Amino acid sequence: MLDITTSRRGALALLLAGTALSAGAASAEEITLGALRLTSHSPTYIALERGYFADEGLEVELSFFESSAAMAVGVAGGDLDYGVTSITGGLLNLAQKGAVKVIGGALAEDPSVPGALILASNKAFEAGLTEPSQLSGKSFGITTAGSSFHYMLSRIAEKEGFAASDMQMKPLQKVGAIVGALSSGQIDAWVIQPSIAKRLIDEGAAHEIGRFSDYDPSYQVTAIFTSTGIAEGEREQTEAFLRALSKGVADYNAAFVDKTASEDDVSELTGIVHKYVSVDVPDDRFAKDMSEGSMRINEGLALSTTSVQAQMDWMQAEGLVSDEITLEMLVDSSYVDTM
Prior knowledge:
This protein is an alpha/beta fold. The chain folds into two domains: 29-108 and 220-330, Periplasmic binding protein-like II (D-Maltodextrin-Binding Protein, domain 2, 3-Layer(aba) Sandwich), CATH 3.40.190.10; 117-214, D-Maltodextrin-Binding Protein, domain 2 (3-Layer(aba) Sandwich), CATH 3.40.190. The protein has 15 helices and ten strands.
């Protein structure tokens, strides 16, 4: 015989549980996060898929971009809440206008870990371009003036004793376009993170002629940033975002950089990243890219302000940004652990 009292209690319990779930969903803060389909953005995908953002009460929507410059504009314009980008002239100009703030560090050169590689096209290599000292007069791929690629070229040129202006810089806007230009011999050289560089080398599309860490061993490649309005007005949300992303960083470094994670963990994390990055690449090739081509991302999203200042000084010396821009205009030090 059906116990009506028990049934009513069960129905009430289900109703209360459903109400609690609805309230929890409604209370989650929705944020939009900019991303590039690169392995350097792996912590974002790990934090999302492993529920670290959700654990902090954040519901994250990803918005994908082809370049860091476009992402910076998206944050400044309010289309994005947070982003991960290189320190570019565009970002500094937006900071001077009071639109954006850097709140953490991300990808970085580490002399103990293989970093960005300097590549020569097959055509240029066969013509004698076999080391960075021979880059003067050659063509070099960048996205835009003032980009990370432009900066890296300048550091190589400085140490090798020639001016970056002695090279033919080819602004191709997108990483994919530079890959195509290098592979087809339309440009002579490029410098890029190892996950992309090693694949080009293995496929016979380019040759390694140097390592960027020989020119700037502490280069802060990318940083975490947000709008000034969010940095100043949404502290709890921003701190929650950084905590969640930091957990993704820790998982990423353990699996792919420090090699301290279990095989099962590495396999799981590789699968997570592959859902978002190089989806057309076979699983075994992508696993090799992650294992052999992952650069360090700063634990706790610490930021090398020394490197950021050096990049700013270079842009100012090149006339790419105003001399009036200061580190304080760019970085919100209340969020950042410096190194």
